[in-house]
Amino acid sequence: MPTQTKSKAKAAPAKKTAGKSTARSNGNSSLKMVTQKNRQQDGQSSSQLEKFFMDLLKDIYWAEKALTKALPKMKKAATTEELKSAIDDHTAQTEEHVSRLEEVFEMMGKKAQAKKCDAMEGLLKEGDSVVEETEAGSMTRDVGIIIAAQKVEHYEIASYGGMAQLARVLNMEDVAEILETTLQEEKEADALLTEIAESGINWSAEEEDEEEDEE
Q1: What string of DSSP letters covers 63-110?
Q2: Which of 1, 104, 107, 183 is deepest in the core (most CB within 10 A)?
């Protein structure tokens, strides 16, 4: 009898061990299912973000190409040689920006494709209106052209800055570096326009108005 009692006492722990093993098995299965689901969600999220990035790329590509056509018109309409020279330099720079964007498309294994940028179209139309509404050869026209050009620069700065950040999130470091190179050039162009305006054109435009009032 004592021997049977000992045998029963030993059997009890064996049942507990089996229960723990089953629990661990179920727990591992649940963890695998959750992990797989998270990976699928991450993949979908990354795919959506990459698609959004590609739309931004097509958008800014259209914008830069449109700008290469608009800048020569601004130069022709400008009054001072200083502003004409700045616009001329930025035209060449903008053509380089287009080439860089085409390089980004190639790096991503995509064909360069432009998507109409409503924002840039609106900004360029506003620039045309400035030229139409100001007198040729006046400093006031140059003031208007500078402001119109800076609005364009600010749009591009926001676009390139945001795209560079997204490129890093998508693990496209080389793409991010290209976009940041252009971003820096846009910031420098904006700063130059501010310098040109503040160094004389704004004041000359005011004097121009005073002379007209005296007449």
Answers
A1: HHHHHHHHHHHHHHH--SHHHHHHHHHHHHHHHHHHHHHHHHHHHTT-
A2: 104
First to last CA, the chain: 130
Q: Is the dihedral of CA 14, 17, 21, 23 positive or negative?
A: positive
Distance of CA 162 to the CA centre of its chain: 4
CB 140 within 8 A of CB 205: yes
* Entry pTM: 0.77
Encoding tokens for residue 207?
């004097």
pLDDT, mean over the chain? 85
Query: Cα(26)–Cα(156) distance, rounded to whole angstroms?
Result: 54
Residue 159 to residue 179: CA distance in whole angstroms: 10
Residue 92 in tokens: 């060449």
Biggest CA–CA distance in the chain, Å, is 130
Segment 201-215, tens digit of pLDDT: 999 998 886 666 555
The span from the CA of 11 to the CA of 157, in Å, is 75
Note the CATH number of domain 49-214.
Answer: 1.20.1260.10
Where are the domains positioned within the chain? Answer: 49-214
Q: pLDDT (tens digit, 9 = 90+) per residue, 50-70?
A: 999 999 999 999 999 999 999
Distance CA 144, CA 142 (A): 5
